[in-house]
Here is the input.
Amino acid sequence: MQNLKTRTQQGLINLLKNFPNRTKLRSQTKTSSFSLLAVQVYAFGVLKNPFRAITAKEFAGDGVDAKWIVYGKVLGDQKVSILRLSLAPGAKTTFSPECPALFHTNGGSGRIGKLEVKYHQNMVLGEVYPEIGFITQSALANGGVEIENTGAEPLVLTFDFPQNAHSKIPGISS
Here is the structure.
């Protein structure tokens, strides 16, 4: 396992070295633009960002743990931020960030607004799964979206925010 981790880290470091030449990177990895974005976010946001996860007090509450796992400035700008939200079984919260966000279900099952979500293992290519979605501007304009854990294990979600999404950058004191 350690050997695989080391090889994965070395592969990401090699991709990072080739980042300025996007054409070369695209042909080497044979991936879509979305996958390249994921590699860039991981490489710049995790390998180059030495911060530990910090509590997102504005989203934490009873039975709700919220942590910024990628945050701050990357290359001098607010490029990306990722929030991990964990709800204990039976917990509910109203989620109302400053801007729309993409979410991924990383564990458990529950409801986000009217959408039932569940983490699936052993996914089959071409099948549709209810574990990725968007928090829209319309939902935010109506006071946010209710998130509820309806399962027996923690509901874990990650929210990916776009560039310059926050008036106060997480992890940077004002």
About this structure: The two ends are 41 Å apart (CA to CA). The chain has two domains: 2-47, 54-161. Residues 1-6, 19-35 have pLDDT under 50 and may be disordered.
